[in-house]
Amino acid sequence: MKQKQVAVAEKAVKKAVVVPMMDKADPNTGATRIVATEKKARYVDFSSYLDNYKIQTKILERIADKTPKGEFFKETVNKASALDILTRNKDNRKLKRQSIDKYVDDLQHGNFEWNGETIKFDKNGRLIDGQHRLWAIVLADAKVPCLIVCGLEPKVQATIDNGQNRNASDALHFHGYIDHPSIVAAVIKAYEQWNRTHTVHSRNHRYVFSPADVLNWALEHENEAKKINEFAEFSVKTLFKDAPFFKASQWAFLYFLLWSLPGRQGKAKDFITKMALNSGISEDEHSAIFYGRRMIARLDKDTEGNSHYIYTLKVKLLVKAWNLWIEGKERATEKSFRWMAGEKDNTVIEKPI
Question: In this structure, are 242 and 307 located in the same domain?
Answer without folding.
Answer: yes
